[in-house]
Design brief:
- This protein is an all-alpha fold and about 45 residues long.
- It has 2 helices and no strands.
- The protein starts with a helix and ends with a helix.
- Keywords: Membrane, Transmembrane, Transmembrane helix.
Length: about 45
């Protein structure tokens, strides 16, 4: 595979969508972990 072919594949529009959805998914998982941790601290204090 030539380098120019590889770069044209990486420049495809679906790569941008994949990156956006991956970042959104990771942010959602981190947010969920923060909420669960906060609820755990809240219920353990009570």
């Amino acid at each position: 595979m030539e380098l120019s072919t590889l770069l044209s594949v990486l420049d495809a529009p679906w790569i941008d969508d994949l990156i956006i959805w991956t970042v959104a998914g990771v942010a959602g998982i981190v947010g969920l972990a923060v909420v669960v941790n906060a609820l755990d601290v809240f219920f353990d204090a009570g």
